[in-house]
Amino acid sequence: MTTESSHTKTPTETEAQLMAVRRAKLEEIKAKVGDPFQANVNVSHTLQQAKEAFESAGQDQTLKVAVAGRIIAFRLMGKATFLQLLDQSGTLQIYVSNNEDTGIGSNAYELFKTYDIGDFIGVEGELFLTKTNALTVRAQKVTLVSKALRALPDKYHGLQNQDTIYRQRYLDLIVNQESRERFFKRFAILKGIREFLWERDFIEVETPMLQSVAGGAAARPFTTHFNALDRDFYLRISLELYLKRMLVGGYDRVFEIGRVFRNEGLSVRHNPEFTLLELYQAYSDYRGMMRLVYDLVQYLCTKVIKTTTLKNGAGYTLELGGQWKEITYDQCILEATKDADWFTHSKEEKLEACQRLGIEVNPDLEDFEVTNNVFEKCVAPKLMQPTFVTQLPKELCPLAKLNPKDLRYIDVFELYINGQEIAPAYSEQNDPDVQRKMFEWQAGEETQKIDEEFLEALEYGMPPAGGMGIGIDRLCILLTGADNIRDTLLYPTLK
């Protein structure tokens, strides 16, 4: 076995040299024992299961195991070697010696010394504690099951180049324990969401990714062409309209966790494809969704994160327990502008005020859009602790119920935590005539953007309902303390 470094000379020269050495070893192994790329290997325990089995059996018991994994470190001591094996469940120390009785024997040990960091091996042997009390497998049989032809990054320096981390995530997962743990948390968060909703009788459904009308959100879609029908389709920008059809069809509690696609910008908070949870509950409203999202976050904090007190990537403390703040959209604007007469000003006066606030706003925007720029740039980034922003202007969402006491507003909330929108929720619009008017207003002259099939479904009757969407990637940023969205995506979109 040989030590290697990926930090000598230029990377291309180093890689070529190391690959040449490893390919020579590969040919030597093939000549001695045949093809090392095995179809399978005997495994009785994962590495974590082996640890747990030893704890259950006690030190007085002899426990034989068969484990497998990737070699990530080793320490050669002449006639014996200590190495670290890695599998999905964690790591475990392996002791390999040339002893004919208790080890693998001298012939097998000579072959073993040609193995490298990064190789996958199967190990059979007994568990024991070393003098330093480290649980170890005393190998009696070692089998090479897959040869690594490229060297892993240096374990002492790890993988630090951000572009390499994102493009070659598999290397990041091998050498950076923090990344492994973050993605295990993401997987646990998704599992926890499903369990939470299943316990409340929600049904998980699947809806089309290819859609003839890109509806359910105000976003630019990706367009593709379906050759069999000779027509353009869109990758979905939302899950909403098909899930609401399920309410029409008699399914009262439905949800979907799926990919959506928006042909827009890249940033630390935006990826063009992202994972979205949308759910709809008949005979509820946006207040019911408030209770539901609060309970969901408490559930995840208890079951997955084990605390309600978190730190974000910048070290700022976030408290997700206790009572969450609620404030109206108009209150947010008045506090941010320090102008009690903001909503009586003309658009031109608001644009001048934006300049004084240091906000760049496109003068061609509608009046309500100018105000929303103030919210997005002056209010939202400062909403660090959990905050429900309620009673938004009706122009911002055509799919929500109008507030019966003031038709300028809609019965919705947007939940902000850590300066990001985590979950919008609505009392869903179920009046087909009002819905058509809102769609027509939103579409303007582009009437082809109106989903006539959805409106037809509403005309058959949809029960009153609360609906909510949660961006899973942003939720994972929050709950794992990640710096940006790319750190929570296994394979983020890159240039």
Describe the overall structure.
It is a single chain. With 495 residues, the chain is α+β, with helices and mostly antiparallel strands. The protein has helices at residues 11-33, 47-57, 106-112, 162-167, 169-175, 177-199, 240-248, 286-305, 329-337, 347-357, 367-379, 432-443, 452-459, 472-480; strands at residues 64-77, 80-87, 90-97, 120-129, 135-146, 203-204, 210-211, 223-226, 231-235, 253-261, 273-282, 309-311, 317-319, 325-328, 387-393, 409-417, 420-427, 465-471. The strands form 4 sheets. An 8-stranded mixed β-sheet has the order 6-10-11-18-17-16-15-14, with helices on both faces. Strands 1-2-3-5-4 form a 5-stranded mixed beta barrel. A 3-stranded antiparallel β-sheet has the order 7-9-8, with no helix packed on it. Helix 9 (329-337) crosses helix 11 and helix 10 runs parallel beside helix 11. The two termini are 38 Å apart. Residues 3-10 have low confidence and may be disordered.
